[in-house]
């Protein structure tokens, strides 16, 4: 464990112990981090908790294309996205697809951490074999209720079954049952399940920091759906507006987002969006279910000094009024150009364009996972 390494329990006598006590425990994670969601953030959070310093290796587009199929985001976008997750201390661009001891040594990492699902190379081998054998592998729990496969499924289906407090849509249920299916049955890793929010999860993700004297309290509001690089660029720009920024993000409820975005938006429900935004290093606090109009009450309650909005269109409130009327009246409203034109819409289009490749890729992955399960079962049976 990290504590053992810190206390010098690894590496012999007291002299080694004293040296080890000085040295921070360095942890390694790696992956594609293509469509980053709170499941990835949660893995990185758990990994960071196992040591003092977390380095995240991100694969290149070329490596991903070779092993999995073309990514939705470019490597530059993916590097920036991972860097914005608050538990990440450093990223290692262009990390090799297979984690080797050589890589761990190069970045001076004690061990690597991976979720308790399996990763297979193109020829069906466990990508973590080498580090497992050397005892430099740790596992963390996979987050229940979200997977890239499931998110893609929600995008492809124009239903609203994934919103909170809306009755399950039968078509959606039927589809989720087929979406992750391989040739023979169902892989437990790629399947779809429902996300259940708990206060514990929110506490784990929250900063827990109150605004301090001298902080500039900045309020931003929106759907922040499928939290992506466009959001990160915007929040980073807002963060740069003050010496000591304290950014509060107001998230609208699902029904509100659906009113102004239409279709089956939001793709992620309010609980999922809460965790996604809390995982961002630029955000200090989240209002879960913020009112659409930025009211005097809200501004006074949080002692807001500045309200920011990106360059996207502001849809009028139900009564036709401007939701930013009050902050404008107070002279504390500011438009912020993120320099990014990426919207959730564009990202969904990118993903749907990749749809066929995705589906083919998931079925191959599913078949591989099932084959491994079969093999594991056979081994078990042979033992008995």
What does this structure look like?
Its EC number is 2.7.7.14. InterPro entries: CCT, Cyt_trans-like, Ect1/PCYT2, Rossmann-like_a/b/a_fold. One of its GO terms (molecular function) is ethanolamine-phosphate cytidylyltransferase activity. One of its GO terms (biological process) is phosphatidylethanolamine biosynthetic process. Keywords: Coiled coil, Lipid biosynthesis, Lipid metabolism, Nucleotidyltransferase, Phospholipid biosynthesis, Phospholipid metabolism, Transferase. The protein has 384 residues and is α/β, with parallel strands linked by helices. Among the domains are: 26-140, HUPs (Rossmann fold, 3-Layer(aba) Sandwich); 199-335, 3-Layer(aba) Sandwich (Rossmann fold). It contains 17 helices and 10 strands. The chain has helices spanning 2-6, 14-22, 38-49, 61-67, 75-83, 101-106, 129-133, 148-156, 170-179, 199-205, 229-239, 254-261, 270-278, 296-301, 325-329, 344-353, 355-383, and strands at 26-31, 53-58, 90-93, 111-115, 137-140, 216-222, 245-251, 285-288, 306-309, 333-335. Helix 8 packs across helix 9 (170-179). It is globular and about 70 Å long.
């Amino acid at each position: 464990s990290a504590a053992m390494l810190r206390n010098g329990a690894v590496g012999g006598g007291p002299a080694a112990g004293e040296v080890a006590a000085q040295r921070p425990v360095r942890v390694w994670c790696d992956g594609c981090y293509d469509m980053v969601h709170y499941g990835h953030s949660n893995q990185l959070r758990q990994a960071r908790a196992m040591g003092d310093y977390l380095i995240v290796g991100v694969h290149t587009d070329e490596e991903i294309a070779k092993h999995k199929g073309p990514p939705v985001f470019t490597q530059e976008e993916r590097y920036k996205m991972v860097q914005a997750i608050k538990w990440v201390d450093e990223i290692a661009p262009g990390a090799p697809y297979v984690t080797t001891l050589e890589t761990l040594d190069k970045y001076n990492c004690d061990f690597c951490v991976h979720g308790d699902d399996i990763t297979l190379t193109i020829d069906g081998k466990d990508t973590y074999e080498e580090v497992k054998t050397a005892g430099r592998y740790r596992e963390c729990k996979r987050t229940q209720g979200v997977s890239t496969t499931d998110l893609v499924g929600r995008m492809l289906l124009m239903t609203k079954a994934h919103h909170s407090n809306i009755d399950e849509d039968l078509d959606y249920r039927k589809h989720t049952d087929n979406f992750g299916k391989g040739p023979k049955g169902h892989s437990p890793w790629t399947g779809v399940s429902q996300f259940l929010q708990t206060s514990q999860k929110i506490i784990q993700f929250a900063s827990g920091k109150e605004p301090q004297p001298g902080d500039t309290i900045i309020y931003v509001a929106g759907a922040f759906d499928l939290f992506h690089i466009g959001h990160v660029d915007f929040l980073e720009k807002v963060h740069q507006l003050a010496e000591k920024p304290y950014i509060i993000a107001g998230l609208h409820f699902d029904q509100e987002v659906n009113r102004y975005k239409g279709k089956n938006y939001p793709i992620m429900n309010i609980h999922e969006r809460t965790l996604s935004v809390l995982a961002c290093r630029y955000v200090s606090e989240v209002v879960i279910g913020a009112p659409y109009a930025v009211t005097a009450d809200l501004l006074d309650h949080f002692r807001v000094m500045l309200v920011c909005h990106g360059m996207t269109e502001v849809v009028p409130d139900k009564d036709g009024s401007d939701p930013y009327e009050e902050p404008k009246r107070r002279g504390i409203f500011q438009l912020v150009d993120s320099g990014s034109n990426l919207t959730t819409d564009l990202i969904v289009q990118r993903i749907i364009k990749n749809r066929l490749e995705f589906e083919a890729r998931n079925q191959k992955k599913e078949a591989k996972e099932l084959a491994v399960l079969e093999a594991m079962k056979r081994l078990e049976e042979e033992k008995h």
